[in-house]
Description:
Layout: H1 3-22, E1 29-40, E2 51-60, E3 63-72, E4 75-88
Antiparallel strand pairs: 1-4, 2-3, 3-4
Amino acid sequence: MPGVLLIECAAQTAGALWATTQGFETPVHFVLAQVLQFKILRAVLPGEEIVTEVALETSFGQLAQFEAVLSVNQIEVARGKIVLAGGSS
């Protein structure tokens, strides 16, 4: 799986978390604003199931920074920080 798709997976999960914590009931449009310190630690092969965990680190207005950890079979495959922007439906 290309690294950019691992980052997208983290961003989608972070967007779902942010929408939930903000109490949005309708679909919300977030934009991946920045990728920080993201490391791909090993390849993800076809058929492997990725578990994505994100934590909201800080929120400042229309921006929020998240820590993301992606793993396969409880082995970390990618880790980093991402910033999302937006909040409009």
